[in-house]
Design a protein that fits this description.
alpha/beta, 2 domains
Length: 499
């Protein structure tokens, strides 16, 4: 590898195969219900939503509008869009590596990222973080250019990028926290604390972000409150911290994460003696790491993928270490490391795929989350056939206990009814109670939950609810979901004696 002359050519080969491979996987799966939920948001563009800022909805809307112009189905565009995003993220990662070090190190960096579950098979999921990761990498690249020419005007560019990134995810503010941590830590650049360009950068970011801020203000800070409660108000304690810690090691490669942290703690990954670049990269490793570790101890949810931005800088430092020591001194160690990392990654991916398609672990359907990746088109067809059998018009609304089931059906049913969640009423902006009472709805529930869901639905809508059918969706011999289908009748149909 030390003899590579054209690393960018190899990069394009990697990106090509990344795009092809994960699209093949993507088109063998259905969209995850969380993706369907974000697509529901995209049908009603706004400056904010119950849980998150609006960028993911805007992006999905652009993708589906483009699909409409090209005659491509929404589901196809959403699948393509997620892998396109992940490919762009890998390309920007290469640009980040090149601006800090050199093309060969940047190529090693991309190879390391591709060996992780998150940046490989994770590519098939279009999620909140993707534009945020693009923005983070953009800021990292601009900082690399600042280290090249010391032009303070680069901070104004960072202001624009972080403002856009915050419209994707609020924790984009961690870039500023990392920046100030570096300024305090790096004595040679401490005078930047007085530089007005940095504060002007923050003002630009807030101006770009201000419509989202105003949306939260007029909606009782609903999205801010949700994120604060999730991150810092749960008191989950050690169990969540342990799951978080094990989770990110698995998600970002058992081999590479352990090696990276060992080398970091042994001070083998960097030279901190008058090296501003290394100190900055270290700040972008440790600031989000400690922030999210605290969240795992205090919050009610701790998702290991939150550390994605930490591993950009950490794996870039590992890539430089590999280039300087492993490849030059013990190249066989590098090839063994990469082989083991990729091998373990694809073993885990293979097991996940086998579980998805065959239930190799023999998990009960109600506890197996892989069932969410298959059979939604078939389930939607079964519901539509059940309604057609009783000459029922297609509903304007679909009700379920939790929002994911209703959102998935909203996407896959032909008329795209608006979802309504019994569990989280805050989400029901587009399916208000009075409209369901006026027009009726289809209610769908998992068999084991139906008695409770039926009672809650009747209590909310005060109208007659009729059982339509029981459906079982299978993939081959594997049961994916067992649902009861009900009609929630319009109140006027009862008063007119039509029930």
């Amino acid at each position: 590898m030390s003899s590579i002359i054209y690393p960018e050519r190899i990069l394009y080969i990697i990106l090509f195969f990344h795009f092809i491979l994960w699209n093949i996987f993507s088109f063998h799966l259905d969209l995850h219900p969380d993706m369907s939920d974000h697509w529901v948001w995209s049908r009603h563009l706004d400056w904010g939503y119950y849980e998150h800022p609006p960028m993911v909805a805007w992006n999905m809307r652009m993708a589906t509008e483009l699909g409409n112009l090209l005659g491509v189905a929404n589901i196809t565009m959403l699948k393509l869009g997620s892998v396109i995003y992940s490919t762009v993220i890998l390309y920007l990662s290469y640009m980040m590596g090149k601006v800090y070090f050199q093309p060969r190190i940047a190529l090693i960096f991309v190879i390391l990222l591709e060996s992780t579950i998150y940046f490989s098979i994770g590519s098939v999921f279009w999620h909140i973080d993707q534009f945020y990761l693009v923005a983070w990498l953009g800021c990292m690249i601009v900082m690399g250019k600042y280290f090249t020419d010391s032009n303070h005007k680069w901070f104004l560019v960072i202001g624009v990028i972080t403002g856009l990134g915050a419209i994707s995810k609020y924790i984009m503010i961690l870039f500023y926290l990392s920046l100030f941590a570096w300024i305090i830590f790096d004595r040679t650049n401490r005078n930047l604390i007085k530089n007005y360009y940095i504060y002007l950068s923050g003002i630009i970011s807030f101006i770009i972000f201000s419509p989202v801020f105003y949306w939260n203000y007029i909606h009782d800070w609903i999205s801010f409150k949700f994120q604060l409660y999730k991150g810092l108000k749960g008191s989950s304690g050690f169990e969540t911290f342990l799951l978080f810690s094990v989770g990110h090691i698995m998600l970002f490669s058992i081999i590479l994460t352990v090696l990276s942290w060992i080398l970091l703690f042994r001070s083998r990954l960097m030279n901190l003696n008058n090296n501003s670049v290394d100190k900055f990269l270290l700040s972008t490793v440790l600031t989000p790491f400690f922030f999210f570790t605290l969240s795992s101890l205090r919050g009610n949810v701790a998702d290991p993928h939150w550390l994605n931005i930490t591993y950009f800088s950490l794996f870039l430092l590992l890539a430089r270490y590999i280039d300087q020591f492993m490849i030059k001194q013990k190249p066989s160690y590098f090839y063994a490391l990469i082989s083991i990392a990729y091998g373990l990654n694809y073993i885990l991916i293979g097991f996940a795929m086998m579980q998805t398609f065959t239930n190799i672990a023999e998990q009960p359907v109600e506890f197996d989350s892989t069932t969410k990746l298959l059979g939604w088109q078939k389930t939607a067809q079964q519901i539509e056939s059940s309604l057609e059998a009783i000459d029922q018009v297609k509903p304007k609304f679909v009700i379920s206990r939790e929002y994911q089931l209703a959102s998935a059906l909203s996407l896959y049913l032909d008329d795209h009814p608006w979802p309504h969640s019994i569990e989280k009423s805050e989400r029901n902006v587009w399916s208000p109670v009075d409209q369901i009472q006026k027009h009726g709805a289809v209610m769908v529930c998992v068999v084991s939950e139906c008695e409770k869901v039926y009672d809650q639905t009747f209590k909310r809508f005060q109208t007659e609810i009729l059982l339509v059918n029981e459906i079982k969706t299978a993939y081959g011999e594997r049961l994916l979901r067992n649902l009861f289908i009900y009609l929630v009748l319009p109140q006027n149909s009862i008063s007119n004696g039509k029930s």
